[in-house]
Amino acid sequence: MSLHAAPTLEADFTAAPPAPETLRRVYRLMRTADELARLYEENKAVTAKYVHATARGHEAIQLAAASQLGPQDYVAPYYRDDAMLLGIGLQPYELMLQLMAKRDDPFSGGRTYYSHPSLRRAGFPTIPHQSSATGMQAIPATGVAHGIKYLESQGLATSSNEQLAISDSSTDLPADAGSGDDEQPILNSSLLITNSEKKPLVLCSIGDGAMTEGEVSEALQMAVLHQLPIIYLVQDNEWGISATGREMRAMDAYEFAAGFKGLHRLQFDGADFLASYAGMQQAADYVRERRGPVLVHARCPLLGHHTSGVRREWYRGDNLAQHSLQDPLPRFHQQLLELGFAEDELQQLAAEARATVEADYQRALAAPNPDPATFADHEFAPPAVTEEAGERTPAGADKALMVDAALHAVDDILREFPEALFYGQDVGGELGGVFREAALLAKKYGDARVFNTPIQEAYIVGSTAGMSAVGAKAIVEVQFADYIWPALNQLVEELSKSCYLSNGQFPVQSLIRVPIGAYGGGGPYHSGSIESTLLTIRGIKVVYPSNAADMKGLMRAAYLDPNPVVMLEHKGLYWSKVPGTEDAKTVEPATGYVVPLGKAAVSQQADATKLQNGETCVVITYGMGVHWAKTASRQFAGQVEILDLRTLNPLDYEAVEAAVRRHGKALVLTEEPLMNSFAESLAGRIQRTCFRQLDAPVFTLGAANLPAIALNVELERQMLPNPDKVAAALAELLGY
User: Fold this and answer.
1) What ranges does the record list as Polar residues composition bias (predicted)?
2) What is the pLDDT of residues 484-505, one digit of tens each?
3) What is the per-residue burial (b if ≥16 Cβ within 10 Å, else e) of 670-709?
4) Of residues 526, 570, 627, 663, which has the active-site annotation?
5) pTM of the model
6) CA–CA distance, 581 with 603 (Å, rounded to integer)
């Protein structure tokens, strides 16, 4: 890997133009994109019901980019890229189905915006889901390239020309696809499948305004650091909604990219198809041959509205007339005439484009809307583990600390699954994590599989979406729960929504380990609890073990689950050094032991006679709360059942209801500040569904409602629950 300064690429614009058939297709598709924009504007009462943007002004660079893509490649388009989608073979009808949020929208089934594709289709580049959040696509797209690089390094990328009967010609646009009615999605695989002798690349399309986002810099940093096979195509129209380039940036993307040593750069006129074709061909050839990143900066005019909801006449003034002089369509028309095409032929191609768009529009208008009954489909992909399996307490096995059980679980996964890799801050090299929870794994499996990242929480989390799309299965770590906040954009916008908004095409298999909780003097930035915030994010699973056996079983289930899973690991339980946490150390389960997500466990049972006499209660808790409750319950022999939730989403509410109905009295215990917490929400739900069985109000206990954990241990003790506080609550509850 070389990090020294790399020369700027200079596109060879003297190269021979593309084949005549390619030029005909490009012209027809450029006309098609123009007709789409015209039709949408003329019918805005219908087409602007939902927001959309079109490619007008950007068609040349988008079609040039599409010309370099084959079915082995991965693409992250952005919301203005409908010409690029036409270029890779999608039909106007398919784009219109998404425009009108119709049932047969091939990308999302009517769930997301126009030109926000998700596509797994034989013979096409793969388009993983990405959100509409500005610049956020750079990290998942780079994660795709990272996953490709990893699988290639392990010999896991395989050519499969037999699987898909396709022709590969990265110098021509792919053949037109059908309407999508006979779509044959590629089967999910645990390995990267390529369908060409050419090596795969990733194309990340982005606007110049988005380049100012910090997460874009994280992506560029990792692309250079690991020399990843990705093209960042920056389409610069000098506008970001109503803000001009001069207002938004001190330099353009080409100048900005010069600071990333090892990122090769190209710059050309994105409104000139022939120049764009030559430039994109050179960029693609470089990435395929050298497996390193390229940034392409293409200047384009903005001829349409920013979006259908932000109209050009509101703010553009004379600028629109200036941009119109650079319209790529008449420029390409003139170039074709100079290359010997006849005017009559070009007019015929234009007429064909208009006829196709008009006919497809009528078809799309008549297409059915989604069935409202399907609104909740694809929140999650079906779980891989549904039953407990393996040996939890093998004969002769020693007891293990939670931290060792976590280490051994990851070790087992890396040994068994070659597509698995593990990365995060300080987990590589000798240290293996600041808690030694990954000790020496890098030595054992190599730096390609277990490695350190920069201090980039957004990349650590967001890259897993890209990894998942190619079949690489990432286990990652955010060093402390208090530092997860920079990753929230990616967790919310990219990971959590991918399965739902892609209509089940792209669930994100991601295991995110997060050390959490107070452990005696950790202070305000190493002691926080974050589960309530995470639990407001739909589409992710949240796991919280309280002992070594569950740690090992849940870790494996979380890895095997096809959905994003955040594994919260309490630092105070890692070594069982905190008084009262001795039971966190358990007999270590055998390799392969697994506990299904969403299943609570009774950690301590109440005495049957006292239960029958109505003298008992249940404590519903998780993590450190299990051990506080155990210690406190010694003052109430046989009277306290402890239900360990183990997984907070999906929540085993059936077990909660059953426990509450058994006892009639319940305490919900958490380490978090109580107000507006998951614990309070759960207590409210219990009161609603178990009201007739309750003999007392549902009690709750948590930390003080303060913004941080104080450093001084005496202050910390005052803020947090502890066994004495739990015992006081139990005494009041049992005596109610």
Assistant:
1) 161-172
2) 999 999 999 999 999 999 999 9
3) bbbbbeebbbbebbebbeeebeeebebebbbbbbeeeeeb
4) 526
5) 0.91
6) 13
